[in-house]
Amino acid sequence: MTVLYNSSLQKATFFLTGFQGLEGLHRWISIPFCSIYLTVVVGNLTILHVIRTDVTLHEPMYYFLAMLALTDLGLCLSTLPTVMGIFWFDAREIGIPACFTQLFFIHTLSLVESSVLLSMSIDRYVAICNPLRYSAVLTPARIVRMGLSSVLRSALLILPLPFLLKRFQYCRSHVLAHAYCLHLEIMKLACSSILVNHIYGLFVVACTVGVDSLLIFLSYALILRTVLSIASHQERLRALNTCVSHICAVLLFYIPMIGLSLVHRFGEHLPRTVHLLMSYVYLLVPPLMNPIVYSIKTKQIRQRIAKKFEFIKSLGCFRQD
Fold it and tell me: In what residue span(s) does the G-protein coupled receptors family 1 profile domain sit (predicted)?
């Protein structure tokens, strides 16, 4: 890839990368990516529409699911312009302000997703361990506060990152290894010490994803203890079945994250394509799979979506008549 070495341009521009060495196939590679993005948008908008229009789904569990769908939709849209821009138009150049803005939204929404998954585990804990107080504990006002606190915590913790990056001089190549901007990658291009960025980045991960994962594990330990104390085998299965969708969402979020971390730390010998694929899996698989999992495993969502399609089909038949 040709990189412009004009010093004034270097100070204002980064260069994104698609699949290096496969530039001639980018148009073909764009087809599955376009399909994934389209499925993510349609799937999450469908979940949001069903929850919004069906009064019977105006319950805490589905409010949290709507938060998850909104977060997944935002995470998808934050990477779509640059990823598809590279594949379709070979648009590799991105200004530093735009790059830092994209970085802010990607990292903030990733942390919001972790917080929402924690809120959903609290919802399952209250529903199973203290069902009589479920409506009293998870009131609409409290749910709104939980959602706002998730967004504020994530945004405030990520907000310093662009400013920490802005203070650097970037004397090395301005070519990034991905089709979007990430803090870890940009800071490695700096000329000076990046120790502060490293420490702050670890602090953010520890007090968000680290704490959230521990609390999710604790909530399920308490849920399991409560379920095992239920005498009826059928009731135990019914209680656990209400958690299956959320457990799948948690695994879809944390397994790619752990895999990406392991590849970055121990996979220097692996081809660059493996690193790229793992990063795309981390960012795209949860938004892609969460609506599918909840549509399949949650009976109420599945039934409402089926009714919507039946209604649309009946309208089509009516127009033909």
Answer: 43-294
116, 123 Cβ separation under 8 angstroms: no
CA triple 191-155-98, angle to 5 deg:
50
The 3-state DSSP class for residue 159 equals coil
- Can you tell me the mean pLDDT for 199-209? 95
List CB contacts of 265: < 8 A, sequence separation 6 or more.
Answer: none
**Which DSSP letter does residue 23 get?**
G
Residue 50 neighbours by CB under 8 Å, 6+ apart: 57, 301, 304, 305, 308
Q: Which residues pair with 35 in a beta bridge?
A: none
Grade residue 3 by pLDDT with cuts at 50, 70 and 90: very low
pTM: 0.92
Q: Interior CA angle at 110 toward 109 and 114, to 5°?
A: 110
3-state helix, strand, coil in the chain (%, to 5): 80, 0, 20
Rounded CA separation 260/142 (Å): 34
Nearest in space to 278 (alpha carbons), one of 268, 263, 295: 263
| Residue pointed to by tokens 């698609």 | 18
Sequence-separated (6 or more) residues with CB below 8 Å from residue 248: 289, 293, 297
Backbone angles phi, psi at 202, to 5 degrees: -65, -40
More confident residue, 193 or 72: 72
What pLDDT does 261 receive?
84
For the chain, where are the E strands, in sequence order?
13-15, 93-95
Integer Cα distance of 288 and 80 in angstroms: 13
What is the C-alpha separation between 182 and 107, in angstroms, rounded? Answer: 8
What pLDDT is attached to residue 196?
A: 95
Residue written as token pair 């709507």: 66
How many Cβ atoms are within 10 Å of 148's Cβ, its own excluded?
10
